[in-house]
Amino acid sequence: MILKERNRIDLGKRIGRALLAVGLSLWAGGCALASVASEAAPSIFVLTTPMVEFGEGREMLPLQLVVDEPYAPAALDSNRIVFQPSANEIGYLGRARWSDRAPQMVQVLLVDALDRSAGFQAVGRKAVGMRSDYLVRISIGSFGVLKGETGADGTPDRVIVDLKAQLVRRFSDEIVAAERFYAEAEPGSSRTIDIVGAFDVATSQALSGLSVWLYEAASAAEARMNGGS
Questions:
Q1: From CA 42, how far away is CA 99, in angstroms rounded?
Q2: Residue 10: pLDDT above 60?
Q3: Is the pLDDT assigned to residue 187 strictly greater than 60?
Q4: Domain that holds residue 20
Q5: Together in a domain, 154 and 112
Q6: Which is nearest to 133 in space by CA: 68, 69, 67, 64?
Q7: Cβ distance 170 to 135 under 8 Å?
Q8: Counted domains in the chain
Q9: Are 134 and 168 in contact (CB under 8 A)?
Q10: Are residues 124 and 179 in the same domain?
């Protein structure tokens, strides 16, 4: 009888310890969820499509153009906004994000700019699977904020957008033209919204120049292929 009573006591203690462990686990999990829920969500930013002007007398080219997703090194292949304290160091702005990964954002902006310019018969992303006459390949060398030097004579912070582009004939895979497009813009302050504004300026400059170049390069390539000057 005494043995049975002891067994009941031991069983009660084990059940009590188990219930206590479960309770502590639920409490800890609840605290973790509460902590996550209380953290402020990151701010999401987008860039605007640049306006492209080819000049008077430029007619639509009867060509279809496909833009491949740009290549970017791992540090830039992200939706984080890059901040470089020095030329050899890469960090990110806290609690700020692009709406897409940087390469995808550049691709969409370029396609939209070319489509609005009406310089080509059709423009699309390579992922769509559209048949085309030419392919645009881009590599992103820089897409971030480079911190300036301190002091009265130091350089200010600046946004740098550096793109290298190739125009490729689809059926022969021949590179018919290649060019680099570099643009800078000063944020004016360290506020995130001003930094994003500088990104908008620099990206628009680079993509506008790239769009005009694509029109001229495609025109020249077609003229050479057809025996023109």
A1: 11
A2: no
A3: yes
A4: 1-39
A5: yes
A6: 64
A7: yes
A8: 2
A9: yes
A10: yes
| Of 141, 206, 217, the residue nearest 175 (C-alpha) | 217
pLDDT band at 88 (very low <50, low <70, confident <90, very high): confident
Whether 34 shows a pLDDT value over 60: the answer reads no
Q: pLDDT digit string (tens) for 206-226?
A: 999 999 999 999 999 999 888
Query: Half-sphere exposure (CA, 13 Å, Cβ side) for 54?
Result: 21
Going by the DSSP 8-state scheme, the letter that residue 128 receives in this structure is: G
- Domain with residue 117: its CATH number is 3.40.50.10610
Nearest to 69 by CA among 22, 135, 132: 135
Using the Cα atoms of residue 84, residue 85, residue 86 and residue 89 in order, give the sign of their dihedral.
negative
pLDDT of residue 13: 54
pTM of the model: 0.79
Nearest-CA neighbor of 203 among 49, 15, 79?
A: 49
Whether residues 119 and 33 fall in one domain:
no
Which residues, at least 6 apart from 119, have a Cβ–Cβ distance to it below 8 Å?
52, 54, 58, 60, 61, 211, 214, 215
How many angstroms separate the CA atoms of 112 and 124, rounded? Answer: 8
Q: Which amino acid is at 157?
A: D
Residue 154: band (very low, low, confident or very high) from pLDDT cuts 50, 70, 90:
low
Pairing state between β 61-67 and 120-125: parallel
111 and 195: one domain? yes
> Do residue 67 and residue 34 come from a single domain?
no
Dump pLDDT digits (tens) for 109-153. 999 999 999 999 999 998 767 789 999 999 999 999 999 875 555
